[in-house]
Amino acid sequence: MQAAGNSTLGFDSIQFVNLRSRYDRHDAMTLQAFLSGLDIVESPGVEAHEIHDVGMPPSHTPGYLTDKEKGCYRAHANIWSDMLKKNQPAVLIVESDAAWDVNVRDIMANFNKHFIQFLRQIGSTPIKNPVRAARASGGAQAKQRIEYNPQDPWLSRHWDVLSLGHCLEMPQHRDVFRAFPDAHVPAGMDYWGTTLGHDRVVRKSGGAVCLTGYAISQTGAAKLLLRTAVDFDDAADLIMRRMILAGDLIAYSVFPTIMSQWQYAEGIGMDQRGADSDIRGNGHALEKNTVMKGWDDVWKSGSAWEPKKGHPDIAFQEMALSGAWNRIFGKAPLKASTVKTRMDF
C-alpha cells in the first residue's frame, strides 16, 4: 500500500486550484506541501472578469449564479477536461484553502488499505467506462477483481468521486461504512451517534458539500463534465451532491475528513480584507490605525492560520500550517523579528 503514501498520495497528480491574485494562498500551499512531502501542481483559478455568458454552458436557471461561482466551477471543470484528454486514471483536486495534517502521507497509506477492504465489504464492481467498454472484445467490459494495484492504488474504476475534505456530509447511506484504526485521529469523535476511538470511517457518501479536497476518476470527470455542459444550473459542489443523491455518481467519503479548510486567525485584519473566501469575501483595505487584537497570539504561536470554524469534522493532530513555524524555526519567537513601529527603521 506504499504507493498511496507517496508524494502524490497515490494519484496521477495533485492539482491545486488557486487564483493568480492569491499569492498568500500560493505560499501557504507551498509550505504545507514542503513540510508534508507532497508534489503539487498549480492549476489556475478562473477570475470573475474572465467569465462571459457566451462561453458558459446552457442553464435552466439563468442569473442564479454569480460570476465568482461560475469561475470556481470552470477552474474545476478545466481539470476534469484536462485529465480526460491526458487519459489520467485519477487526480486529487485541492482548493487553495485546503489544510491537512503534516503526516498526511502516513494517514493516506493507512486509509488506502482499509478503503480496499471496504470496497470488498460492499461488493463493489467496476463502473462502466464507455471508452474501455468500446475497446473491449465483443463490447463487453472485463470484470476487475478487488485487489491492490500499485499502478492504480485507489482502484479508481470502482468510484467516481472520493471526498477527502468537505464541509458537510449528509445522513443518507451512513450505514454503509467501515471504521478502521488511525492513530492520528483523537478519540471521541461522534459518527451519527456512535463514539469512535482512535478511528476513522470510510462510507458511501450521502452527498458531500464543498470541494475542499476530492479525488476524481475518469468516469467521474466525464459524468461531471457532461452534466454541467448540458445544464449548468447550480454551484459545482451542489451539482455533485445532487448527482450523488440521484445515484449518478458513485461516491465515497471519509470521517473525520483528512483535509479541511483553513482560515486566518481572527483579529489580524484578514477577515476585513475578505481573505477567507474568494467567493463570499467582500473585503476592503485596512486603514492605517486599525485595531487588531489577534497579533499577540500570532506572535506567540508563529501561526496566522487555524482550522475553519463551523467545520465539526476536523481532527488534525498537527495541521501542517499551524506547526510550520516550530518545524522551520524551532522555538525562535516570531516577535523577535517583528517591527514595533515604522520608526524601527
Give a concise summary.
This protein is an alpha+beta fold. 27% of the residues lie in helices and 17% in strands.
Task: Jot down its keywords.
13 strands, 345 residues, Spore Coat Polysaccharide Biosynthesis Protein SpsA, Chain A, 27% helix, alpha+beta, eight-stranded mixed sheet, three-stranded antiparallel sheet, single chain
Strand order in the sheet with the most strands: 2-1-3-10-5-11-9-6
Strand content: 15-25%
Enter the CATH topology name. Answer: Spore Coat Polysaccharide Biosynthesis Protein SpsA, Chain A
CATH architecture: Alpha-Beta Complex
Give the terminus-to-terminus CA distance.
55 Å
Number of DSSP helical runs = 8
Morphology call: globular
SS-based structural class?
Answer: alpha+beta
Radius of gyration, Cα only, in angstroms?
21 Å
User: Fraction of residues in helices?
Assistant: 25-40%
The largest pleated sheet is described as: 8 strands, mixed
Calculate the mean pLDDT score and round it.
90
> What is the ordering of alpha helices and beta strands?
EHEHEEHHEEEEEEHHEEHEH
Number of strands: 13
Report on this model:
It is a single chain. The chain has 345 residues and is α+β, with helices and mostly antiparallel strands. It has one domain: Spore Coat Polysaccharide Biosynthesis Protein SpsA, Chain A, CATH 3.90.550. 27% of the residues lie in helices and 17% in strands. The protein contains eight helices and 13 strands. The protein has helices at 23-36, 67-85, 104-121, 130-135, 218-230, 236-245, 295-301, 324-329; strands at 14-18, 41-44, 90-95, 98-100, 161-165, 177-181, 190-191, 194-195, 199-204, 213-217, 251-255, 259-264, 305-307. Strands 2-1-3-10-5-11-9-6 form an eight-stranded mixed beta sheet, sandwiched between helices. A hairpin with a 2-residue loop joins strand 7 and strand 8. The radius of gyration is 21 Å and the shape is globular.
